[in-house]
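One record is set out below.
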Amino acid sequence: MNWTQIIDPLNSVGLSALVAAVPIFFIFWALIIKKMKGYLASLFTALIASILAIFVYGMPLKLAVSSIVNGAFYGLFPICWVIIGAVFLYNVTVKSGQFEIIKNFMASITTDRRLQALLVAFSFGAFLEGAAGMGAPVAITAAMLVGLGFNPLYAAGICLIANTVPVAFGSVGIPIFAAAQVSGLPEMAVSQMVGRTLPFLALIVPFYIVVLMSGFKRSLEVLPAIIISGVVFALVQFLVSNYMNPMLPGILSGLATIICLTVFLKFWKPKSIWRFKEETQQTLETELKYSAGQIIKALSPYIIMTLMIIAWGMQPVKEALNSIGQFKFYIPGLKDAIIKPDGSGFLDIKPFDFNILSTAGTAAILSAFLSLPLIGMSITKGIKTLLATLNQLKFPIITIASIVGFAFIANNSGMSISMAMALANTGILFPFFSPILGWLGVFLTGSDTSSNALFCKLQYTSAATIGVDPVLTVGANVSGGVTGKMISPQSLAVGAAAVGLVGRESELFRFTLKHSFIMLMIISIITIIQAYFTKWLIPKYEMIETATATTTAISVSNVSTGFLYLLLLFVILIVITLTVLLLNKRKAK
């Protein structure tokens, strides 16, 4: 069965775009006004999108069902798999009692909620996003903040808002590579453009989240720490993205901020400690009462997870693991079935990639199991904790599978392109609307990478038509996309699940929606200024055979190198294990 995509079924781009946006309007209404549970809102959204695809866009029923199934599979794996791994690792540290030690360690650095948010949500979250992405940073940091005593809604909301600026360079720079590959631009040019936009937002976000928590006046009490967080992050992100490569800005900016902020807080404290009004009296010991060995032992699951996620992010390791544990297949009926609207060929349908060993979720789950002997927990109890985690996440899993199913049918039916074309028809104002396309793509798919794959070619051609450098609008798609992450139904499901707010995603959505729009407007204003007033900020570059170059950049490794890296990781893990055991043996004596 062959079917040609229709992007303007109503013979009016604006009207077709409005109809295509009905599922989005619905989910906004369901979560904000109706306060519907996240999984129900997502199921109804997928159903509405299917009806529109079939009866308005003329998509055959078989293709519609196959598209939904393809999306649901992708939602379950790898997205839900990553979330399961992150929450499982957190649950293991709680069940074993080690999180009490982590809380005491964090409290010894600072008991101030404002500073804890900067340290955990902004800095550590950015580091995790750079290394892994896929929902793991929000799940881990939100769970940690709740463990430290944060209100669950604030913990999830703050982590979602903080998880903006590192997203463009998340998962070791994959969103940048996707944008370059689809648009045909050099990946370094895209990296430089994004690296000259997002640092402006990075300077704002630390202050923004502290004001959100405590108000403007109380934020000034910790202004030195806010300045250090924003300036260090923005500076490192700018330098690495412009002069090194797109793979390391997230990791290095997050790590540099953690180190600088921790050292600074050893020598500086705010005059007063701030906590939420509704909090009970502080019960955490503010003086460090555990030895270095006990602290390392408690942190060992996160140390192991961080090392493994960094390793799993390396292309040679991915290839090595895929060589022994990868299975690709096409959902029946989708391959070479959907013809592009211009008739130039078939829509590029990628096979479902069941790369069970090389996904970040497996790294997190393995980290938890490898940590069990170190934290004094049996394998049996670990398995029970994993089963309890699966039960805890059953509704978020339904939410994510449904919403990714919706994203896939919106893309395959042509509905997404209808909305994109309406924005592309705005002429010289298009640079202002370019980030909105990226924002829309991430809202639909939950992924900056997927948004870039969906819209970056359109960004390129639209910019060329109006005489604007395409690297600006392609970079704007990447940068604008990060502001949509905090309201994506997938992200809301992750945040809600991590802090025990399953079924209350609508509250989280209302918490983050306004801030998503504010940050999106900031990126849009920056982009139009760059387009017409500060053109010198746009990087100079030469067009090359980027499709080949990008593919080579992504796969320039071999299996033997990957196994060598894994051997090195194994040695490091053994050293960590022996160190933890030795330190705690001395403590016991």
In short: The chain has one domain: 3-274+285-588. Strands lie at 3-4, 327-329, 338-339, 352-354. The mean pLDDT is 84. The longest helix spans residues 61-95.
